[in-house]
Amino acid sequence: MTVAAGSRKLKVGLMLPQTEGVRGPGVRGWSQITEMATLGEDIGLDSLWLVDHLMYQLQGEEKPRGVWEVWSLLSALAATTQRVELGTLVLAMGWRNPALLAKMADTVEEISQGRLILGVGSGYHKREFDAYGFPFGHKVSRFEEAIQILCGLLREGAVDFEGTYHRARECELRPRGPRPNGPPILIGTNAGSTRMQRLTARHADIFNVYYDNTRNRVDGFKKVLAELLEACRHEGREPTSLEKTATVLLADSTADPWWDRLPTNSYAGEGPLIPLTGQPADIAEELNQYQIAGASQVQICLEPTNCQTIEALAPVLEALDEISV
Questions:
Q1: Gap between the Cα atoms of 13 and 6, Å rounded
Q2: What's 169's DSSP letter?
Q3: CA angle at residue 300 from 3 to 250, to 5 degrees?
Q4: pTM of the predicted model, to two decimals?
Q5: What's the CA gap between 160 and 214, in Å, rounded?
Q6: How far apart are CA 67 and CA 77, in angstroms?
Q7: CB 18 within 8 A of CB 73
Q8: What are phi and psi of 314, to 5 degrees?
């Protein structure tokens, strides 16, 4: 049974799998990804999301995992989906020219007819920076310059900027996509990252915090949200003008419990990392607590992610719709 997306108070998105051995036994091919994306639309999800990694190696692993490149997949999804919003969670600005990224984003905006959410961050996984030849130092300073170029082009259509790490002189963005000010810009940041939180308050339309920083708990989300509100006050930003979102780890009974094998210092935050599980009504109630705490959307990391587990989200969405009435 499908449910009506777009009317619930708390939007629900899904992270699609693209990394070897993450959210399933192995990396998914395009035919599987597009099948899951279509099913996600059919059951009433509000959005679909992709990560941005070039290779990924968890602490304690001997070899890195392979990852499909995000922008290629995103462009294909823009052409093959019809309704859902499409987001990046999040693009590593450290290995993309910000002016070119603005051009790429507005092009996907056009292909998707205004369904893009452009999630960006400074990047954090040094292994892939080193392997692919991108500088890892001064990440936040590089991001601070890049976000000014990106915002100027997407929101104003033009920018003239000269910085230490980036430049865009008399640069214009033409033609433009369907939204005059471009797609909404989401910035992902962590607990305790004061500088990134202030940049979020200064530039973003949407804020995101990942489950590793909240320890997958609503109380953890509230803690990071309090820091963000302080950043808004520092920047003179009205907090209600900034959308807040949280990524949540949800595990099916068939999931491989990789979180139990992580070294204790693998993730930020306090306490163990425990996925959300249970009956659809229980899961819906827990997700609704994020909305009560101030979130406008949650992005679900589903372990494992396949057509069966995605279809099992339908009753969760139905229960959430009943709560949200």
A1: 11
A2: E
A3: 105
A4: 0.94
A5: 38
A6: 17
A7: yes
A8: -55, -50
Q: How far apart are CA 261 and CA 242, in angstroms?
A: 36
DSSP 36-103: HHHHHHHHT-SEEEE---SEE--TT-SSPEEB--HHHHHHHHHHH-SSSEEEES-EEGGGS-HHHHHH
DSSP string, 183-208: SPEEEE--TT-HHHHHHHHHH-SEEE
Write the DSSP symbol of residue 240: G
Q: pLDDT per position in the chain (325 positions), as tens?
A: 344 555 689 999 999 999 887 777 666 789 999 999 999 999 999 999 999 999 988 777 888 888 999 999 999 999 999 999 999 999 999 999 999 999 999 999 999 999 999 999 999 899 999 999 999 999 999 999 999 999 999 999 999 999 999 999 999 999 999 999 999 999 999 888 999 999 999 999 999 999 999 999 999 999 999 999 999 999 999 999 999 999 999 999 989 888 887 665 555 556 788 999 999 999 999 999 999 999 999 999 999 999 999 999 999 999 999 987 6
- CA dist., res. 238 & res. 193, Å (int): 20
- Nearest by Cα to 5 from 48, 51, 44: 44
Report the distance separating Cα 252 and Cα 248, nearest Å. Answer: 13
Give the number of other Cβ atoms within 10 Å of residue 290's Cβ: 21
CA distances from 57 to 50, 52, 105, 246, 314 (A): 18, 14, 28, 23, 32
Cα–chain-centroid distance for residue 271?
A: 23
Query: Residue for token digits 């499409």?
Result: 86
